[in-house]
Amino acid sequence: MNIRAFLSVFLVFVTSVSVSSQDDRNKIEIIRPASYRAPTMTPSDELQGVLNKAIADVLTRFEAKGVKAEEIAATVIDVRDGNVWKSAEVRGNERIYPASVVKMFFMAALARQIEDGKVVPSPELKRGLRDMIVDSSNEATQYVLDVLTDTSSGAELPKSQFEAWQHKRNRVNRFFTSMGYQNINVNQKTFCEDAYGIEQQSRNYRGENRNMLTTDATARLLAEIVSNRIARQSYTAEMMQLMKRDPFSPSKDPDSQAHGFSGKALIDKKLKDVKLWSKAGWTSKTRHDAAYFEFPDGRKFVIAVFTENHANIGDIIPAIVGNVIEGMPKPAKLQ
Fold it and tell me: Which H/E stretch holds residue 288?
C-alpha cells in the first residue's frame, strides 16, 4: 500500500472513531435542547433601583441583629417580555453554598434526560423526584444524582478509578456549561449530616468541591424553566407542579417552603391572588429561596435571594421580596 492510500484509510479510521466517540457521548451526556438559545437579559436601571432599595431597607431593619451587606445576594428577572428579560442583581455573581436550591438544577437536568429518552421515568424515579422538590429530601436527591450521573456512593477509590468516577459525576456541570452558565458547581449530593468515603473524596476532603451557586445562575434557571426553554411544555408543566406553593394553605410548619420564605411576603401583604412557584434551601448557616411570581395585573418575575450567617432570621427573605413586590413596575395601563 502506498503512502497516499495508507493516509486515506487512516483518515477514514480516525474520522469513524471520532464520530463513534461523539455518538457514545451523546448517548449518556445531558444535551441541551437542539433549539436552545441563551436568553437575552438587559440590565434595568429601574429594576436595579428597586432591588437596591429593597436590600438597603432590610439592612437598616436588621442592623441591630448584625446583618451585613456581604451576607446577602439577590437577583431579579422581569420575564413578562418573552424575548428580552430585564434584570438586576446585588452580588449576583457571588459563589455561595446553595443548600437545597441545587435540587432545582438536578430536576432540570433530569427533565432533559427523560425527554431525550436516556432515562426511563419509573414510578420509583417519579417518587424520588417528587420527594426531592416537594419535601426537599436529601435521600431522594442522592438517588436522583446517581441516576443522572451513573455514579454511586461508596469507598474511596484509587486515583485513576476516582478520576473516571468524578468525570461521570461532573455530567450535570457539563450540561449547564454547554448553555453558558458560569461560576457554579452542581456535582455533589446533599446530606442531612455529612459525606463519607468517595463523596468526601469528591469534595477533596476540605469542602473545596462543594456545590456552589450564584443568584444570577439560580434566577436564570428558574426563568428558563418557567419559559419552557429547558424542556418541552409537558415536562415544564411537571416541574412547575412540583414547585407550586400555596402560602395560604393550612400548615403547622412556619418554615415550610410555602410559608417560611418568599411565600411569607404574600402572607404579610395578604396577596391571595398571586401565584407562586419556588425552591428553598436552609442549613444552619444559610437560608435561600428562588421564587417565581405571577400577578393578576400581568407582572411576572423571578427573584433569587441567598443569605448567609443568619439562617434563623426568617424575615430577611420575605422582607426583601416584599419590598421588590412593592417596587416592581406595573403595566403602564395600571400605573
Answer: strand 286-294
